[in-house]
Amino acid sequence: MQHDKVLILDFGSQYTQLIARRVRELNIYSEIHPFNKIPTDIQGYKAVILSGSPYSVRGDEALHPDLSEIRGKKPLLGVCYGAQYLAHFGGGNVAPSNTREYGRANLSFVKENEVFLANISEGSQVWMSHSDTIKELPSNGVLLASTHDVENAAYKIEGETTFAIQFHPEVYHSTDGKQLLENFLINIAEVTPDWTPDSFVDETVAALKAELGSDKVVLGLSGGVDSTVAAVLLNKAIGENLYCVFVNNGLLRKNEFDGVLNQYEGMGLNVKGVDASARFLDALAGESDPEKKRKAIGRAFIEVFDDEAHLIEDVKWLAQGTIYPDVIESVSATGGPSATIKSHHNVGGLPDFMKLKIVEPLKALFKDEVRRVGASMGLDPELLGRHPFPGPGLAIRILGDITAEKVNILQEVDAIFINGLKEWGLYDKVWQAGAILLPVNSVGVMGDERTYEKCVALRAVESTDGMTADWVNLPYEFLQKTSNDIINKVKGVNRVVYDISSKPPATIEWE
Ligand code: XMP
User: What global pTM score does this model have?
Assistant: First the structure.
């Protein structure tokens, strides 16, 4: 089944991905493409949205694509830079603002009974973030709404289905932003909102069946949401021909390897658990540089996975849990085409499994959509709500070199912390949490004895995508109980600290 699609042309705004997500929340499929790479099959898109940008339409560097196949021919919405673009290159005038225009503003309607503004209240809060302003509308422009500081906050072009807004409907602080997108896309552009998790599953399974036929596919499971949802989709399509490999690198959480393996088997996946802990510990021996540790783990994983892939006779495909943010081409800070698609297909010198054909069933989805698709296939909510966990595992939470003993200590500490968060109903309020084993000993006293033992840090952050994060204000009573439990139960630890650094300037992981 073909769904209506919306094209979002990216001019480099920090909010472009949010536009795509808001559109998809309306059950409408949207794609982001760089402003200078307009898809050749433009006819296949039902409407187009121009994003914001850090650039000015007035400068020599103005990002200026040829919209002649779009403008006046398709429903078009310009947001912020997009609105200024349509004004500046359409006979209007854009100039620097006299007043700062960042943050909240309130809309007042200039023109009543506009479908574009239906069900939006007069005075509705919108979010502004721009330093240029539209002084004069383009030819045939009709003013629809203003704010206190911005006269030309929303306009349309007479005789076209072209609309433009100076504010950002995609951000949470624009309270009726989603309604406005709905008005434009559903009521004006007549896009059919029928793209849902259930429809995604049915269509993807059918497409995978057609593409893979009776070929064999190998997939590396990590215990995380993306690889698991990818495996379940593929399993629906090709059953036993999907060969999943779940590698224990010895750096997972306490009991995680057996627990997750059982869970996978219970889900009917054809999965092989490979305990390669010793191989990883060997590869890490004596290494304390964070980047070298990461590389050693990456190499060991490739070796183990390559060995396993060779055992599957006649395997043709490698499946990956790649998601949409990994494949969006970003517009670079210089405005040039940056084409930074993640690429590992640099053939020659690659392990054999990487020469397989690649299948990526989730590459059109955002993370929250992967979770919705997983839920619609009946996956355990606990699995879907699991915190992210880094590929190198506890190795980047043990500062300095890694030994089996240190891994054991950290697994115990981490288990007390994470189980505590679950027991106290705090786990789902936290985006990611874990413990860090510090390379310092400090003096303590237990009973009448002096101790000189390890210090651990606890880290719990809130975030939406890991790019920025803030520490979570966990209840003192919880921290008190957790600290007591750790020091009393984990031999070798006599001090617990809580990390209260935000990202930036810190990062989430300590290494
Ligand atoms: P940072 O420490 O950069 O972490 O603030 C942001 C997010 O990325 C995860 N992370 C990694 N994930 N391999 C991974 O698969 C890595 O080497 C790695 N380093 C950091 C981190 O857990 C957080 O969610």
Answer: 0.86
**Cα 438–459–367 angle (5° rounding)?**
130
Question: For the purposes of burial, counting CB atoms within 10 Å of the CB of 296, is it exposed (0-12), middle (13-18) or buried (19 or more)?
Answer: buried
Q: Which atom of ligand 1 is nearest to the CA of 389?
A: 22
Ligand 1 close to Cβ of residue 297 (< 6 A) = no
Any residues with CB less than 8 A from the CB of 471 and at least 6 apart, and which?
459, 460, 461, 462, 498, 499, 500, 501, 502
* Ligand 1 pocket check for 432: Cβ under 6 Å: yes
101-137: per-residue pLDDT in tens? 788 999 999 988 899 999 999 999 999 988 899 999 9
Is residue 141 a contact partner of residue 153, using CB atoms and an 8 Å limit?
no
Torsion of CA 130, 136, 142, 146, to 10 degrees: 40
pLDDT of residue 346: 38
Whether 466 is in the pocket of ligand 1, judged by its Cβ within 6 Å, is yes
SS3 labels along 214-271: CCEEEEEECCCHHHHHHHHHHHHHHHHHEEEEEEECCCCCCCHHHHHHHHHHHCCCCE
Q: What is the pLDDT of residues 270-289, one digit of tens each?
A: 999 999 999 999 999 999 99
Question: Does any ligand 1 atom lie closer than 6 A to the CB of residue 507?
Answer: yes
Q: Which of 222, 432, 501, 509 to mutate to test the pocket of ligand 1 (most atoms within 8 A of CB)?
A: 509
Q: What separation in Å is there between the alpha carbon of 390 and the centre of ligand 1?
A: 5
